[in-house]
Amino acid sequence: MTQTAGMSGDVPPGGDVRRPSWRDAALASDTLLGAVVAVAGTAFFVSARGIAHPPQLVVGPGTLPTLIGAGLALLGLALMVQSLLRNLRGPLAEGPVTAGESAILDERRPGADAGVAVQVADASAPAEMSVPERAAGPTEAAAPAAGARRLRGGWRVLAAFALFAGYVLAFIPVGFLLSTAVFLFVMTTFAQPEKKVRNAIVAVVFTLVVYVAFIYGLGVYLPSGITPLPIF
Amino acid sequence: MFFETLSDLGGGFLNALSPMSLAFALLGVLIGTIVGTLPGIGPITAIAILIPVSFGLDPAHGLIMLCAIYYGSMYGGSISAALIKTPGEISNAVMALDGYQMARRGRARTALATAALGSFIAGTLAVIGLTFLSPVLVQVSRVLASPEYFLLMLLALVLASTLVTGSWLKSGIAVFIGLAVGTIGLDPQMGAPRQTFGLDMLRDGVEFTIFAMALFAVPEAIRHLGNPRGFRKPVPIRKGPMLNREDWRRAAPAWARGSGLGFVIGVLPGVGPTLAAFMSYVMEKRLFEWRPRGRKERFGEGAIEGVAGPEAANNGGVGGAMVPLLSLGIPGSATTALLLVVFIMYGLQPGPLMFEQESTLVWTIIASMYIGNLALLVLNLPLVGLFVKLLTIPPVVLYAAILCFVLIGAYAIEYSLSGLLLILVFGILGYGMDKFGIPLAPAILALVLLPLIESNYSQMMQISGGDLSVLVQRPVSLTIIIFTVVCVALPPMVRLLRRRGDRREEKVEVPA
């Protein structure tokens, strides 16, 4: 259903035609996603059931949250079933990452190479279009090296999130100036260790310019924390 | 009514042409274009980050500026899409197809001028449409009551989750995530906290701008910082004529088609510029292949129609989406949802009442949209070389700075730690959603619509005594229901029919 029409019949370039197993189908990303959504929806539903309903109201504070939780759980379940069925049917089933939104020109993601197949509204909207150029299948990215790279990429994303979390927690107690300058330097150096000098200059200049602009130009307060510079 | 509208608009122009208003419109377009040109930043991020900038302004100037920022960032997104193939947001994505191909073939200047002219033409036509359609809708709205409003918002969500790119199950999940987040916090009837799961930071609910910034800006920035990759080198813009006669002949009809299509789609609740641009691209492709008329290039390889149509549709959609926003208070897309929040922030409630009570302000804003569109054209054609310089900013610096701006923005809204923590939490959620292909925009729209849905739903149920049949007994609400069903059922049916037709066609065309 989500496949690019021309591709679904062909054997993938890798020629890997093994039989789909229940295990693979259960571990497919959409199956897991559906399960997570279903659990979250159920939790939301259960919590909403606990909201007191004043008798004089037809629609209480819990009415909509209950419906929404149930809806979320059902949609998650539906996604799970759809993904299971699809993955049991054929090896190509995972498809070109249904993220139609980002599939377009996404060069960030391995696999979804540059405008391979732009699908407008695969399930319901009027049409689909594909860019003829470079119509290589996403299956090509399945080389073993790509897997390792993706794993390392995942850790680096996690580390970037951790740095950002540190910044979020330090922002108020440490103060804007110090926390921002340090965060900018650490984050840019984490991403590009070979450019320490530039990173340091950017961190200091950016922080000061933004500080002055917001405090004096826009009258937006920024936390001073333990930073010795006064807000004057 | 026609002349009344004209005189209202005239009064609006008197205000909008005052030096201060003019300055804010120009400033907004300029800032919007600059921020929108930055790779990976589109209208939603641009407006959300720039909301603190407008805090100190009075409503008229603040709204004029933020609307202008909207236009500017739309156009800025096309610049980065055409020159480095990195659109700011999905609505500019189409420009990265034929626009980028034109640029690669040495026609960057033509591509950008085509986009700018198309934006101007479609934007202006759409504002004209807005000018004359809004008063009509305000009249129509007299027969609308809570059941109709409730259904219109439902329609918006249904369209937002079915007429999108990708799996409709996933966009449905996005809608429900937005709704669920919307219910968190103090409930509107009893004023007691609900669905907070015992967390203090959820007590007051989730501020919309925080949700939008966390979903749109944070994942994008973190992904880049985790795995930095340089942007493409911007395609150089060669000197030369912007459009030659052949270009004009081919672009003009595409502009016209795109403007019309964009406006109509924009007016529909729930869908906006993005769908307009995509549909226009598909339409131009079909027309092109149907009658190639000895053109040198193929569609998708730098056909000017593929730039002119979608770029016009895009901006026509922006104007169209303003219609239900201003006259009914129902946002048509994620970005207009953000604008609705801005209106509310200034103590205004868009809808029929606003046209009565704040008539001067409304018409000033509408008049400023004409000016903003013109400013876009006047600024962008000569300044494009300057904007291109922005594309050479090192991405790592850019994305780290975006994270700082996001935190400043979140802090400026609530001055509390919980806002900052929510940025982190929903940033992680947004990253996960994006990773699994759940679209982000429907969630944002749903979050804004939830309070409106809830109040209209409970009002309707209170009056009818819990009887849902009121929805089919009222003629207007029944019409909306039928319309919704048609919208949902039509595309799959058309596809089914087309599939059969294709098979037959194939047999006929095989010899060729």
Which secondary-structure class do the elements of chain B indicate? Answer: mainly alpha
Q: Helical content of chain B, roughly? A: over 70%
Instruction: Calculate the terminal CA-CA distance of chain A, rounded to whole Å.
Output: 62 Å
Mean pLDDT of chain B: 86
- What is the count of structural domains of chain B? 2
Weakly predicted, low-confidence segments of chain A: 1-15, 92-143
* Shape label of chain A: flat
Strand content of chain A: under 5%
Radius of gyration of chain A: 25 Å
pLDDT < 50 runs, ≥5 residues of chain B:
505-512
The largest contact between protein chains, plus residue counts on each side, is: A-B, 91 and 93 residues
The major sheet of chain B is characterized as:
2 strands, antiparallel
SSE topology string of chain A: HHHHHHH
Computed over alpha carbons, the radius of gyration of chain B is 23 Å
End-to-end CA span of chain B = 57 Å
Structural shape of chain B: globular
Quantity of strands of chain B, as a count: 2
Q: What kind of sheet is the major sheet of chain A? A: none
Continuous helix count of chain A: 7
Query: Got a strand count of chain A?
Result: 0
Provide key terms for this protein.
heterodimer; A: 232 residues; mainly alpha; 7 helices; 55% helix; flat; disordered N terminus; B: 512 residues; 2 domains; two-stranded antiparallel sheet; 20 helices; globular; disordered C terminus
